Each structure stands twice: as C-alpha cells, then as structure tokens.
Amino acid sequence: MIQHEAERSRALSIHAAADGARANRAANSVGPTDGVGPGVGLGINGTAIQRLALSLQRSAGNRATTQVLLDLQRCGGERHAGCGCVSESSESPVPASVQRDQPAAGGAAAKFDLPSGSAFNGFGAGLLDILSRSFRDRVEGGSGAEKNLDNAFWAGTPRDFEQALVRLGTAGANLLQEIWDRSGSSLFKSLKYIQNLWSGTSRGFKFVTLDIPGLEKDLIGHSSFCRDTPTGESEHKPSRCYRELVAGAHGLHYCLHETGGCEVHIDMHQTVKKKDDDGTCAYSWRSLPMHWGEVFLGFSGESPFEKVDRTKAKIESLRKQVEKMPLSDSRVPDALKALASMEPKIQATETKARDLAVKGEAGEREAQGSIMPTVTAILDEAINLDLTLNPPLPEFGGGF
Question: Cα dist. 363→34, 117, 242, 304, 359 in Å?
C-alpha cells in the first residue's frame, strides 16, 4: 500500500512538472536558440529548465527527471502524429530511481537491525555483533566511538545499520568476512570496535580493543600465527606484529600498539613458511619479491569487488557532472541515455557482488568468473562517456 501511494505521488509530480513546462513554453517560446541542436527548440529557457530539473530531482528522483527532460528536449513534451517524438520519448531509456535517504521504518530499534532479507545477514555472527556495536555506539555518541566505521560516515550519518554497511562497499564487506574467517572468534573476542577500512595492495581495518595483552597472548599461542621479526614489522613501527603462517597467498597481519593503534590486514602474498621454536616467523624467500612489490611498488591486481565499487563511484561522478552541465550542451541527451543504460546494470551487478562478498575468499573466487567480465564491460562504457565529456588535452609539443 505504501509503495503504491509513493508511485502515485511520483506520477503526479511528473505530470505536474511536464504540464508546467508546457505552459511556460507557450508563454516564453524563444525558438531554436535554446535548442539542443539546429532548429530544435526547448520551448523554455535553460535557466527555467534547470530549476525544473532540480525541483523534480528532489521530489521524484533522477528517473522521473530524465524522462521529463528527454520529452521536453524532443518536442517540448508534446506528441505530434508522424513525428518520432511519439515513440522516441516514451521509449528512451531512463536510469533506475535513486534510493533517497528515508527514515528507517519501524522506529529507533529498526535503525540498528538488519532487514531479514539483507545480504549482510551472511556475515559471521561474531563479526556482525562487532559491526552492530560499532555503529550503535557511534550514532549514540559512545566514548571512544568517534571513528567507528568511519568510511560509512564520510557522506553523513547513515539512516540505519544496513546503509552503513552498504557504504563500506562490496570490497569492504568482502575483506571483513575474509578477516573474520581467518581469525575466528578466538581472536575477535578481544575486538570492541571496527574503525576505518581500506583495500588495494593490502585489505584491512583499524580496530579498538580494551585488552591488548589478552589479544597478544592469543596470537602468541595460536598455531597459525607467529611473531614478526624486527625486519618484518619495520613498516609498522612502533607496533608489535604477528603474521599468519601462509606463503605466497592471502595471509593476515596483526599489528598492535597501546598508543599507535591496532590494525589487521590481509597481505595479498604473505611470506611465512613456518614458525620457529622461539615463536618468530621463518620467511619464505620465494614469496618475498611479490610481497615487496605490493608494499613498496604498489603492484596489486584489482578484485572484482574493488572494480564494482570503483565503477559505481565513476558512474555517480559522471551523473553529477552531467547534472551540472547546461542543457543547451549537445552532449547532454546522449550522456543521459548512456547513464540510463549504465546505472541499472551497475546496481544489479553490485547486488550480486554483495551476495558474494559476504562469502569471503570463496566469494571472491566465484566473483572472478561471474562478476568481473560484467563489471569490466560496464566500466568500459563509463570510461567512454568520461572521454566524451572530458576529452584529454593534446600532448604538449605534438606534431613537432
């Protein structure tokens, strides 16, 4: 019932905006000088259209706005027998509706819960508890919680827990689950809060623990971890670090310090072949070149989830650019159509990626085959539009 009322309200907004534009056209027709091409008049001046567009975006979203603008740009919103506007405007692709920030349904309690169908219910229970506590305490102003889930708050306070997790990106969801899988509850029991996340040449997060000695004791006694040597932890001074016993593949690296903070990250090519009798790490020299290339030279392949997040951000950036362009710019109609094609595809791909992201490393392997080809094709479309809107400058001194 709510959904039907929302759709009805949106439809009324569309018709009202279009009717107003047509009336303005009749009163203020200025001919082809405001058109998007030779002999094509918008019927209302560009400033009026921009005001209309911004108003409609706020009330009905990008989908409704794009449809009205495509109609107006063609024939001022009218339909003429025998004219392409009869079919072209109604069939023009439009982007999927933007999800507007709305208060969480169900009151304050629902703000801190996940919907039953949320992909994030696939997280490990212990991991989900820490994430939920991190979000709740930051929203409620808990002491020491000021940097909790920091990435999710860069665009303002999320409306609820699920939106906070969405804002961490599919790459964020994936690294959280993989670190949980590799650590288990025996190590995560010491974690109170998760702070900012990152991915790239390594994937990890900073965290708060109230029991560094206890966590360090667990790492020392853990059969899958060893104490880093001074050389191995030199990039993380003054922290004391512990590596997972893995050589040439994904492996964890915990670094702890009382005042410098604590973090855990995945080294893409971990370097440990065994644990010596004194508990320190014995390194695999064969795996060191790859690890050093990542640490010092930035060599690292992009995961499917990182590419999904990058492509989504790219398309959002292009959308913002197009919305700021004057409607008299001849590139706007084609740009709108290109965005209308890309936006639903990246949204659908992101949804599929999120379902796989919460499966950790196994989900990444699956995504390499099922997500990577699709998102690569979408990114190519975005790059082509970017080149159209922002053509590269000619090389200095070209032709000499």
Answer: 52, 19, 26, 10, 5
What mean pLDDT do residues 306-330 have? 97
The 10s digit of each residue's pLDDT in 225-272 is: 999 999 888 888 889 999 999 998 999 999 999 998 999 999 988 889
Residue with tokens 């410098």: 260
Q: What are the CA-CA distances from residue 69 to residues 21, 29, 61, 90, 239 (Å)? A: 10, 16, 13, 12, 57
Q: At residue 118, what is the residue type? A: S
pLDDT tens figures, 40-86: 233 334 444 444 454 454 444 555 555 544 444 444 444 445 444 44
Q: Model confidence over 198-207: pLDDT tens digits?
A: 999 899 999 9
CA atoms within 13 A on the CB side of 220: 9
How does strand 191-198 pair with strand 262-267?
unpaired
Q: Which helix (H) or strand (E) holds 92?
A: none
pTM of the model: 0.73
Q: What is the DSSP string of 351-367?
A: HHHHHHHTTTHHHHHHH
Hey, where are the domains in the chain?
1-97, 114-297, 302-391
pLDDT digits (tens, 9 = 90+) for 150-189: 999 999 999 999 999 999 999 999 999 999 999 999 999 9
The answer to whether 263 and 284 are in contact (CB under 8 A) is no
β-bridge mates for residue 274, sequence order: 282
* Whole-Å CA distances, 339 to 59, 192, 314, 319, 392: 20, 42, 11, 7, 20
Neighbours of 377 (CB within 10 A): 12
